[in-house]
Design goal:
alpha/beta, Aspartate Aminotransferase, domain 2, Aspartate Aminotransferase, domain 1, 2 domains, seven-stranded mixed beta sheet, 13 helices, 12 strands, binds pyridoxal-5'-phosphate, lyase, Cystathionine beta-lyase, PyrdxlP-dep_Trfase_small, Cys/Met-Metab_PyrdxlP-dep_enz
Length: 396
C-alpha cells in the first residue's frame, strides 16, 4: 500500500492493486463476479459477518460486492479524500441514497436551486411522501441565512451547478452548515475528485455520477457516495443495505479502469474546452454569453481559481437574438457533436438546455436559448470548424 504522502495521482493509480501471490501479481484488480461468498469454515463466516455488522466494507454476500468493488472504492476514496465509499447503480441512486439515509419525517433540507434537475423533479416528491420538506437557496446570494430552519438537517450543493456552472463558496457553506447542526453534501460530478475535493473544503459527503468522467467512455451507469465520518457512513451503509443497492462486478471493473486515466483525460478535455470557450466568447455576432468558470469574466471565476484544480469539457452558451427553433436548427446542423444527455465520455455532445430547468436557476436571466456542449477528445480545430458551419446555417 502506498504511503499517504504520495501525491494524489500516484495514490489513485496504485489503490486496490493486487498483492503479490507466489511472487507475481497482475497490474489490474481481477474481475471477481459472485453471488454466494464461500467460507472456509463457520468461524470464518462468523468473523466476517461480525466485521460487517461493525461497519466494515467486507462482503458476506455477493450484493456487498467483491474485491473488484473494494479496489474501486479505495481509488475513489483517494480521489475524494474519504475513508468510506458506497457504490450505487447510478448517480441518481447515489443522491437518493444520501437523502433517504440522512433525513427523517419532520426534517427539512436546503437545496441549491441550480442542482441537477431530477433532484427537484424526482427526489423532492419522494421525500415529501416521507415527510421531509425541501426549500431552495440561491448560491449567488450569499449564505442562506433566511432559509435555514431549526429542523434543517441537510444542505445540498452542486458546484459548479448543472447547465450554467454556478460556483458555490463551499468552505463558507460548510461552516454555515456546522453552525446550524446540518450536514453538507455536495454533488462532485463536475470535478470528479480530480478538479474539486468537497470533503477537503469542509463538506461531509461528496457524491459522484461515475457514469460521467470517472467511467469516461459512455459505457456504464454508476454512482458513488464518499463520506469521511464513520457514523454518517454507518447510516448510509444501513440504508444502502436496506435498499439492496448493488453494482455489477463488470461495471465496477470498468469504472476502475476509467479512474486510472481520469486525470489525464480531464486535462485534455480542459485544453479543448478552453479553445472552444474562447472561440465562442469571440463569436459575439451569434453568441450572447459563454458559461465556463475557467474563463475570466465568468461570475464563478474567482471562486473557481481559489477552490478548483482545473476545469472539464462542459461549456454552455446562450445564442444571441435566437429563438428555440434557431437552437434546434443549430444542434441539428452539427456533425461532430452528437445530440445527447449525459457527458464525460471521450466524445463531443450538444444539448439544448430545457427552459423548464433553467427557469428554476436563480443564476439564469433572460430568455435566450442555451446550448450545453460537452467538448470531447477530438481535435479541437475540427470541433470549432463544426460549430462555425452550424452557426453559418442559422445566420440570417
Ligand atoms: C448525470 C448527473 C447525475 C446523475 O447520474 P446518473 O448516473 O445519470 O444517474 C447526477 N448529478 C449530476 C451533476 C449529473 O450531471
Amino acid at each position: 500500500m502506498p504511503g499517504q504522502r504520495d501525491r494524489l495521482n500516484t495514490r489513485v493509480l496504485r489503490a486496490g492493486a493486487p498483492a503479490f501471490d507466489d511472487g507475481a501479481a497482475p497490474v489490474n484488480a481481477p474481475l471477481v463476479r459472485t453471488s454466494t461468498v464461500r467460507f472456509e469454515n463457520d468461524a470464518a463466516r462468523a468473523g466476517l459477518h461480525h466485521r460487517r455488522e461493525a461497519g466494515e466494507a467486507v462482503a458476506t454476500y455477493g450484493r456487498h460486492g467483491t474485491t473488484t468493488h473494494r479496489a474501486l472504492e479505495s481509488a475513489l476514496g483517494e480521489l475524494e479524500g474519504a475513508e468510506h465509499v458506497l457504490l450505487a447503480p447510478s448517480g441518481l441512486a447515489a443522491i437518493s441514497l444520501t437523502f433517504i439515509a440522512l433525513l427523517s419525517p419532520g426534517d427539512h433540507v436546503l437545496v441549491q436551486d441550480s442542482v441537477y434537475g431530477p433532484v427537484r423533479e424526482r427526489i423532492e416528491p419522494l421525500l415529501a411522501r416521507l415527510g421531509v420538506s425541501f426549500s431552495y437557496f440561491s448560491a449567488g446570494a450569499g449564505l442562506p441565512a433566511n432559509d435555514v430552519r431549526a429542523n434543517t438537517r441537510l444542505i445540498y450543493a452542486e458546484s459548479p451547478s448543472s447547465f450554467l456552472y454556478e460556483v458555490v463558496d463551499l468552505p463558507a457553506l460548510a461552516a454555515f452548515a456546522r453552525q446550524h447542526d446540518a450536514l453538507l453534501a455536495a454533488d462532485n460530478t463536475w470535478g470528479a475528485g480530480v478538479l474539486y475535493r468537497p470533503i477537503e473544503l469542509g463538506a461531509d459527503i461528496s457524491i459522484q455520477a461515475i457514469t460521467k468522467y470517472a467511467g469516461g467512455h459512455s459505457d456504464l451507469m454508476q454512482g458513488a457516495v464518499a463520506v469521511k465520518d464513520r457514523d454518517v457512513a454507518r447510516r448510509l451503509r444501513d440504508t444502502h443495505e436496506a435498499l439492496g443497492l448493488s453494482v455489477g462486478a463488470d461495471d465496477a471493473w470498468l469504472a476502475l479502469r476509467g479512474v486510472r486515466t481520469l486525470a489525464v483525460r480531464l486535462a485534455q478535455h480542459e485544453r479543448h474546452a478552453l479553445d472552444v470557450a474562447r472561440y465562442l466568447a469571440e463569436a459575439t455576432g451569434v453568441v450572447e454569453r459563454v458559461f465556463y468558470p475557467a474563463l475570466p469574466g465568468d461570475p464563478g471565476h474567482a471562486l473557481w481559481q481559489r477552490d478548483f484544480h482545473g476545469a472539464n469539457g462542459l461549456v454552455s452558451f446562450a445564442l444571441r437574438d435566437a429563438t428555440l427553433a434557431d437552437a434546434v436548427a443549430f444542434v441539428d446542423a452539427l456533425r461532430l457533436f452528437g445530440i445527447g444527455a449525459s457527458w464525460g465520455g471521450y466524445e463531443s455532445l450538444a444539448l439544448i438546455a430545457p427552459a423548464s430547468r433553467l427557469e428554476t436557476h436563480s443564476a439564469w436571466r433572460g430568455g435566450a436559448p442555451v446550448v450545453r456542449l460537452h467538448v470531447g477528445l477530438e481535435d479541437p480545430r475540427d470541433l470549432i470548424d463544426d460549430l462555425a458551419q452550424a452557426f453559418r446555417r442559422i445566420a440570417r
